[in-house]
Design brief:
The chain is of the alpha/beta class. The protein contains 9 helices and 9 strands. It has a 5-stranded parallel beta sheet. A two-stranded antiparallel sheet has the order 3-4. It has a two-stranded antiparallel ribbon with strand order 8-9. It is elongated and about 70 Å long. The chain starts with a strand and ends with a helix. The protein binds S-adenosylmethionine (SAM). The site of S-adenosylmethionine has 19 residues, from strand 5.
């Protein structure tokens, strides 16, 4: 069954953008996923195609009108989750991506200006998702991030089925380092263990490296991983002064 993405945007020419090439582009041609891009201006109330207005209460910037956004949603709404990309939303994670990829698809609303009127967020029960703690000029790059992350998890998109399971975040750890030929480059040898041919030893080394990198770089992930691996007591003990 095709995973269906719909994007509601003021800039439809930004799509499929990078999703038209490589893995995602080939998967779309193969019918694994589909993309419908809808221009929010088609739902504007006047011939000037205006979709925004000044904020009640004053202040800088413009706000996208709820009636325009609502009509655009009405035209595409079905059983797919309705997502509004916003820095205020829950942070996009690999788990959330996997959940969305396992569903029928997504309807993604891209904001511009200061964002959209709060009432349509509430009336439509939009799920608010952020791609990180920084401000983009519009939701379109965030939509491309979300769609890319979902598409590569769809069955048949990645050549090697095991690769998604070994990536950063899938086991709650950042990924171990990779090496390829030449075995020595600029005086830097590949770790001996990787040339040993001992699969179990290689697997153990990779886990140890993933743990080391996660411990050094992401104390938040490391603490959560320890809780899952060893139980609450270890994490609590580690956190003690
Ligand atoms: C300039 S931003 C508005 C920022 C908003 N005034 C605020 O402070 O939260 C315009 C649009 O870009 C999108 N956007 C910006 N940063 C984002 C992020 N980190 N994650 C998801 N969407 C984002 C949202 O759709 C937002 O409505």
């Amino acid at each position: 069954m095709t995973w269906r993405a719909a994007v509601l945007t003021l800039f439809p020419t930004m799509f499929p953008g990078p999703l038209g090439d490589s893995l995602a582009g080939r998967a779309r041609e193969a019918g694994i996923w589909s993309l419908d891009t809808h221009d929010l201006r088609d739902h504007a109330p006047d011939r000037h195609r205006r979709v925004d207005d000044t904020p009640f209460g004053g202040g800088a910037g413009m706000v996208m009108r709820p009636d325009v956004v609502d009509r655009a949603i009405e035209a595409v709404a079905d059983d797919r989750p309705l997502i509004y990309l916003t820095p205020r939303g829950e942070r996009l994670s690999q788990q959330l991506v996997a959940d969305l990829a396992a569903g029928p698809g997504v309807i993604v609303l891209c904001g511009r200006y200061e964002g959209i009127d709060q009432r349509v967020i509430e009336a439509r029960g939009l799920r608010e998702i952020s791609v990180g703690d920084y401000i983009l000029s519009g939701g379109e790059p965030a939509a491309l991030v979300l769609l890319d992350a979902c598409i590569r998890l769809l069955p048949g998109v990645m050549g090697e089925p095991a690769s998604a399971g070994e990536e950063s975040f899938s086991a709650g750890l950042l990924e171990y380092p990779h090496y390829t030929r030449p075995a020595e480059w600029q005086g830097r040898p590949v770790p001996d263990i990787l040339l040993s041919g001992h699969h179990q030893a290689v697997a153990a080394w990779r886990i140890a490296e993933a743990e080391r990198i996660t411990r050094e770089r992401r104390p938040d992930l490391w603490a959560a991983y320890q809780v899952r691996r060893d139980g609450v007591a270890v994490a609590t003990a580690a956190a003690a002064p």
